[in-house]
Every structure is written in structure tokens, then in C-alpha cells.
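Example record

One chain of 749 residues, shown exactly as stored in the release files.
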Amino acid sequence: EVKELLKLNEDPRVHGVYLHLPQASLTSRVLDTLKPEKDIDGHIMKSISPPNAFNELGQSCVLTLNQIISTDAPLEGKNALLVGGEGPVALALQCLIEKSGMVAVKINWSSTSLQRQVFFVLVCVRETHFFLFPFASQIDIEISRAQIPKPVNQLAEEVGLLPEELEAYGRNKAKVRLSLLDRLHTQPDGKYVLVAGITPTPLGEGKSTVTIGLVQALSAHLKLNSFACLRQPSQGPTFGVKGGAAGGGYAQVIPMEEFNLHLTGDIHAITAANNLVAAAIDARMLHEATQSDKALFNRLVPSVNGVRRFSPIQISRLRRLGFNKTDPASLTPQEVSTFVRLDLDPSTITWQRVVDTNDRFLRKITVGQASTEKGQIRETGFDIAVASEIMAILALADSLEDMRNRLARMVVGTSRAGQPVTTEDLGVSGALTVLMKDAIKPTLMQTLEGTPVFVHAGPFANIAHGNSSVLADKLALKLVGRDGFVVTEAGFGADIGMEKFFNIKCRASGLRPNVVVLVATVRALKMHGGGPNVRKHTTNLSLVAGGCHSNLRKQIQIAHLFGVPVVVALNVFKTDTQAEIEHVCQIAKECGASDAVPCHHWAQGGRGSLELAQAVNEAANRPGNFQFLYDIEMPIAEKIRTIAQKVYGADDIELSPTAKDKIDYYNQQGYGLLPICMAKTHLSLSHMPDKKGAPTGFVLPIRDVRASIGAGFIYPLVGTMSTMPGLPTRPCFYDIDLDPVTEEITGLF
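Predicted C-alpha cells for this chain:
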């Protein structure tokens, strides 16, 4: 308490402090610490802190709500509605409100209407626990700032980490070392829960908030060890259209600014590694085009103190070429030529540079135009950083050694003789591992209620598998123990993110999920039932039922293909009626869900997801019968057809001539045993974004087939996939700024 009071004493935004502590804590030392000018006996308040991870609810800490008096908007004459306000905290709030020139209006919980001219609402849930709801777009960041995260070393101790297993990045986040897996290798894993969704509207249906609300409910209310594992968001959408991805309301990761921006630099490491490969490709083509075999050999294997030696990565290349030699002087002229010349065909290069910014003008560029590049001009482009294959590798690797091997296997193009050229051929794979050595460690953060979160990796959900990392899941499953829960999220709808989670991620990790939580919203169900996309709807049970019997039913059936029970989580919005909520839950159970419950986590935090937590706990304790959708040894075309027919509902697939040629080539190169990662629109179960519900009677066109050999999957292209978003007319960055005095970020959401 003394430490927190010292902070409040020096905080210019805090005008007064009301001490609401257990009597035993009101010692003379505590009372003497508070500055007399701030000891106003109720002008600002303390609150019960969120539950510590794995600990009992109710430890006391300071929570200052200074937005009331620090807002830039004029306060004089405004109405402040105090809902459910009784006791000393409510009196303190009323005093502060009136002192600032506003009018305090008090009503009880049963009031059916609010006054029109209300500036903000203070909701007193208990005497010492309240929420602030400003009527503005910045509610998420205001809620995030209203809670001071517990120090990350304290969080780490609570979840069972040793000090030597933690690498702190400031006060609020830390990397966790993989040595934890060795220490806890005999510890049984906890329950494994995947949060997926129905086919979404363009706005998304709230999988992240459901994930966070669920772990908060499991921890705080069911007293079960719980961990959330989330993807790291790209800065492209953060400054573009979508905004951040920390969750929202009272179900978010904090501090949300750190979560949504640089975090611990993983995406920057991926960008550096990816672009090193791109630089190596162009430099190698330049040098091969302008030097003789002898000159190339002398530079690639230089003489040091009169002695030439191959580096380990060069010896690996010699062995792949079938040359069992280690002495540079023993190579024949033909062997020297084969060794030094990758002979990349520029038209086959698939590797592009990346940047973590939405920049449409980088989609197609020309490089090599300077005179120093000696005419080595070619067309290429940029992808957004999270579309890099290195990101997918980070998400699927299960050790540092596995990551190094995957990075070495990445194919960047084909030689003129038709042979794949890898990063190991370029001699760069070891350097990539060095750049990625810290990125492989998951980042520990926390939710608003103090539940632990691993944030790690963020691969695209179309050309990649759209899931957080295998390592984060494995670490969390060991930390929570046999009776605990790890909740992770899959990108897009269940037909994409969940299918890839099962067929790609679970194959790589060896982990098996216990439950699928399928997120739905009334607005999305109405859209699938025949209503417009995201416009406001009046109550329409017929549209709701149509969406339930089509898209919701189909997504439940997809989960059942893998033998996993489904709990439907209806993410409730304030415009949803009770009749609609009950209708969805009833039909969902009729469609095969183990249970279906409404969720109010955005407004109520973990308490609003208690019913979901109970349903998940019950479903997770039932015997499972997990199975993959297809045998990995099936031909590539048959694996694609199986997904199209059983998951999407297609009659068949249609392979273009290009797709057929690529499949033949991949079979020839020995890539036929890789799983499939379909690159398809997320806005429909079909390839046609406008076809909602559960379309049937269509043939799925496969335009092209590509491969991420390092990540370990084949990805067929259904239509055109953009890997570099653009900026809209008015991007999010218009509203983002920094207060130079407080250093607080404004406009981020």
C-alpha cells in the first residue's frame, strides 16, 4: 500500500485519494504516507484488484480513475449518471463530480431509461468495484489504462516460473525461456481449448474477447489455472482500418498499447530475417552474372593465412549435391561450377521483401535499376511482414533446432535446371536463426483481470495457418497442470482457422484439443439467414433461425468431423434482444452443440463469461475422440478435394493447368506428404464472398498451388489472395498521437 500511495502522491492527474482498505492495513505508516492535500477522505477511490493468476480473488490495490477530471472535454454543466451508487465510494464520486462543475444524477439498477445529456456513466457494481463507461470511441484504451498491471515478475512467480526462466522487457512483459519445457517435462498437460467462429461479417465477431473473457472466468470464478495464447497483431491493421487486436472492453490484454505496437520486437526480427534472404537472392544473382566460376569460388571460399576451408553450411550444400568432399582443393572444375552457381531463374523466385505497414504501392516494384547493379533488373514486390514464411515457421516450430531446420528448408525459387533453391543453398539459414533466436520465446502478458497470456506469432490465416505458436501452447499446458486450461484462438471462421489448427498445427505439435468454443453473433447469424451484411437489424427471429440452421450448423458439423465437442458462445451486443439470444442458444443445441450460452465479457469481464466457463469445463471432462480429416499420405489433389467437399460443402474441385503442373512438380520433389493450407476467402464457406449461409452445388476452382516447404505445407490458391493490404481514405493513424507531457498514446484502439 505504501508503494502505491507514493505513486499517487506524485501523480498530477490524481487530485485526491480515498482509502478503502481492510482495517488491519490502515496502519500509521500507511496513513502518514498520504500527502495531506490529497487526503480528502473520499474524493477519489481505491478498488478491488482483478484476481491474481492462480490466486484468490480480492487482494487490494489502487485503481485511479482520473479520466473524470483530466478529460479535455468541457465538464461544466454536464450530467454524470451514477448507477447503483451507495456507500462511501459513491459519496466520494459524487463529491468529485460536483466539485468539477458537473451535476451528479443517481439512479438504481432497476431504472429503465437514462437521461439524454449524459457525459459519462459511473457504474457501481459493489461498494468498491465500479466501471467507467465514457461515451466515446476510446473506451477500450481508457479501460486498459484504468488498471495498473501487476509487475511481470510477480505474474511469473504466480504462474510457476523461476526467475532464471524470465527475460523482462520493462515492467509489463517478458520473454519466457524454452528451458521451462525441460524442467516441466513430467508435468501432465492441462485441458486444451480452441476458440473458433462462424463465418464472420467484415467486422469480426469477437473471438479474441471471448478467449480473454473465458480465461478470466476460469481463473477468477472457477478457480482453475488458466492461460490464454494469442497471436501478435500486425501494425498494418493497427494503423490502417481494423485497429488493434488486444480484445476489448473488460476482456482485453493490458497494456493494450504495448500489445498492439512493438511488443518485444518479434515482427521486427522476422522483417530483418526475411529481407536478409531477399538481399542474399539478388546479390547472389548479381555476382553469378558478373563473375567466372574461379572468381566466385575464390570469394565464396577465401584463403585465410594461405588455407581454404569450407564453412559448415557449405559442407552441407556439397553433401546435398552428392559431393563427399571437405577439401576445397579436391573439387574438379565441374564440381566447382556446380557448387558456386545456384543459377536461379528470376521468373521462378517466390521470395518477396516485407514491411509491417499497409502499403499498396509496394505490391509490385522493380529492383536493380541503379547502374551499380549492372542491368540486373527484375520485378518483385513486398508482402506485409506477417505474411512471411518465417512467421509461419515461428508459429509451428517446437524447438530452436526445429526452427533452424525449417529456416534452412525454405525454398526461394527454382534453378534453370528445375531444382529448388533453398536458404541453405544461399548460405543464409544460420544467420536467420541468429536473428530469430529471441523471437522464438513467447511473450508473457496479462489480461485486465490479471490472468496470464502468452502472445506469440501471428501468421496470416489465408496463405498460412492463422494460429499462435505451438511453443506458447506447450509452455502454457505445462504451467497450468492437469486440471488447468489453455485457451487459444484460430483466425477467421472455423472452416479456415479451425481446420488448419487441426490438420496443420496439431500434426506439428502432437497436441489434441478437448473442446472447441464456436463464437457467433446475432448480427452475423442474421446476415447468414438472408439479411444485409452489417447494418442494424430489428428483431427478426426468422433471420436468426436461418443463420443458425445454415452457417452455425455447418460449422458445428465441421468440428465434429474431427471428433471434438462444441460449445457455442453467443457474443452478446447491446442491440440483441432476449428472444434472439434464447433462440440462438436453443437452435445451437439442436444442431449438435454440447451447450450454447450467451456471453457478456465485454461489459462484465470474467463474470460475464462464467456460464461459458462452466460449459467448457463440463465438455472438457468428457472422453474425446480426436481424428484428422485426411490421411497425410493421400495424393495432394485428394487432400484438397477432401477439404473442399467435407468442410466447404463443394461438389468437387477444378484444378487449373498451372495448379496441375505445380502438383506434379511438388510430387517430383518429394513434397507430396505435406498437409494442405487452403488460401480462400474468409467471408463465405465457398470461394464466393457474397454467398452466405452454407452454400452447396458449387465447384471450388484451384487457380494455383504453392508451397511453404520450411513451414511444412502446400497452399492452394482459391481466387486471388492479397498479401499486402492498402490504406483506406481515412486510416486509423489520423487519430493516433502522443501526449508529450504524460507520454500517453491517444487514438489507439
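Notes: Residues 42-71, 109-137 have pLDDT under 50 and may be disordered.
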